[in-house]
Hints:
Radius of gyration of chain B: 24 Å
Distance between the termini of chain A: 21 Å
Largest sheet of chain B: none
Helix content of chain B: over 70%
Largest sheet of chain A: 2 strands, antiparallel
Largest interface: A-B, 117 and 114 residues
Order of helices and strands of chain B: HHHHHHHHHHHH
Distance between the termini of chain B: 28 Å
Structural class of chain A: mainly alpha
Low-confidence stretches of chain B: none
Number of helices of chain A: 14
CATH class of the domain at 84-277 in chain A: Mainly Alpha
CATH topology of the domain at 74-239 and 271-288 in chain B: MetI-like fold
Number of helices of chain B: 12
Shape of chain B: flat
Oligomer: heterodimer
CATH superfamily of the domain at 74-239 and 271-288 in chain B: MetI-like
Shape of chain A: globular
Strand content of chain A: under 5%
Number of strands of chain B: 0
Low-confidence stretches of chain A: 1-18
Helix content of chain A: 55-70%
Amino acid sequence: MATRLPAAKRRGAARKKLSLNRSDRIWLVAMVAFPAALHLLLVWIPALLTVVLSFTKWNNLDPFSAIEYVATENYRIIFTIFDTNLFPAMFNNFVLVIWLTICSAIGMLLAYLLDKEVAGSRIYQSIYYFPVVLSLAVVGFIWRSTMFSRDRGLLNMVWPGEPIDWVGDGQKLFEFSLPFLDFPLGLSRNFAALLVAMAWRHIGYIMVMYLAGLKAVDNSLKEAAAIDGCNEWQSFRQVIFPSLKPINVIVIVITVIEALRAYDIVAALNEPRGTEVLGTLVTNALLGEGAGRVGVGSAYGVVLLVLCIGFIIWYVADHYRKTA
Amino acid sequence: MKPPRLTPARVLLQGFLITVAVAWLLPVATAVYSSFRYYEADTQVNGVFSLPTALTLDNYRDAWAVGEMSKTFGNTAFIVLPALFFTLLLASVVAYACTRYSWRFNIAFLILFTAGNLMPQQVLFQPLFQMLKRTPWPDLLSDTDTGSLLGTKIAVILIHVAFQIGFCTFVLANYMKTIPTELSEAAAIDGASVPRQFFSVILPLTRPALAALGTLEFTWLYNDFFWGAVLLNQGNERPITSSIAVLNGQYATDFNLIAAASIVIALPTLIVYLALQRHFIAGLTLGSTKG
Lengths: 324, 291
C-alpha cells in the first residue's frame, strides 16, 4: 500500500487548480454533478421528504393537492393508537442492538485468537466468514429448512423443553411491563431463533474487520508489552484494544445501523407474529393491511431516522476530522 | 519469530476453533445433505442424521419450477450487471474529482456520500415510492402497464446505483488519496486533459480497489432483498433473492425443497466468494482501514 504523503506534497493538488483550462473545469463539474445529483435525488431528498410527509395526512392514491398538514397527529397515532405495533417493534430492534453488539465482541475475540499464528488460521477464517456472502433472506430459509422446524429442526435437539416450531411460535420467552403501556413487552421465541441465525452471519463480518485492524497493530508494541511482563489480558486491554480505536468506531456504527435497519430475514419469512421490527412497520403502512397510510409510514421512518442519525454523524465526524 | 509450540493452551484453542467451525458449517452442510433426499418419505421419518433411503434431484427440479428461477435469475442479471457497472463508474469519477483536485466543497461532497450510504433504506421508502409512481415512463421500455417508473427494473437499478455510489465513493476516495500527486502533475505537464488523466493514469492504478469493490458490490446487489421486494410486483417480476418469499406458500413444510431452493440461490455468491475470496475481504477492509 502506498505511503501517506507529507502535507507539503499534497498542496501540489491545490496549485494545479490554477492551471486547469476551461474544458477541464467543465469535465470536473460534470464528474461531480451527475453522480451527486443522482445520489441527492434518490437518497437525500427522499430522506428529507420522509420528515415532511410525517406531518401530513395523505392516501397515496390521491393527487398532491389532497395532502393535508396535520402537525404531529401521525406521531400521536403511532405512539398511542398503534402503540401495540410501535413498541414491540422498537423493543425487538433494541434487543437486536444489544445482541449484535455481543456478537461483535465475539467477532473481535475470534479475530484476536486467529491473529496468533494458529495452525489452519486461514481455513478457520474462510469458514467463519462464508455466511457473510449470503443474503439474510437466504440465511432465513437455510435455517428454516434445517434448524427451525418442529419435527426435524436441529435447534430442538439442544432446546430442553417440548419441541417447538421456531419460526411459527410467537410465545414470549420473557415479558415485562412498562408504566406507560397497558400491555407487556417481551422477546418471542421466533425472534430469538432469528437472532441466532443473524449471529451466524454477523460474527464473521466483524471478525474480518478486526483481523484487518489487528494486522495493522505494530508488532513491536505487543512484544514490548510482553517484555514489560503484561499478561494476556493486560496486553490486550492496554495495548491492543486502544490501537484498534478506528475499527471500533466503524464496528459500533455498522452494528447499530444493521440492527436498526433489519428487514430481510423478517420480511422473507412473512413476518411471523412477534418478529416485527421498525423496518417492516414502514413498508406495511403502505403495502400491507389497511395500506396507503403515507403519513403514518413516514412517521415510523422518522423514528428510525432519529435513532440512526446520531451514529451516522459520529462516524462521519470521526472519519473526516482526521482527513481535514 | 519462533514457531508456536504445542502447549495445552494451543490444544484448547484448536479444540475451540474446530468446534466453532463445525457449528458454522452445520446449517449449510445439513441443508446440502437434505436437499438430495425426499422429505416426507425419508428425512421426516428417519431424521436428518441418517443414511438416505434414496438420493434424488427432484427437490432441485421442483425448486427451480416453483421459484420460476429461469425468469428470476434473468431479472437478477438484468438488474445487477448494469447497476454494478454504473456504480463503479460514477463512484470512481466522483472520488477522482474530490480527491485529486481541491476545491471549495470537495470534502463536503465526500461527507454527503459517506453519510448517505449509512442511511437505512426504509427511511427513503415512502417518498421514493411516490416519486417513482408519479414519474411517467413509457410501458414500451418496461414490462409493466402502469405508465410509471414504479414496478420497473430500471427503478431498482437507479436506486441501487444512487445508494451504492455512497460506499464506493468513500472507499475509492480513500484509495485514490494514496496515489502520489506527481503522477497527475507529470501527465498534466504533458498536456493530458482531465478525462485523459482519469482514464489513463488514475483508473489503471485504482484497479485493485475496483476489483475488490466489484466483488463485494456484486454480492451486495445480488443479495438485495428490500428494493426488489418493495418496488417490484409480486411473483416472477422480482430478482431471485426477493422472490424467495414464494417458498412461504404451499411448499413451506417441504423442508428439503426449501433447502434445495436456498442452495441454488446462495450458489452464485458462494462461487464468487470461493473464487475471489482475497478481493472480497480486501473490499471490506479497504472501507475500514484508511489508505
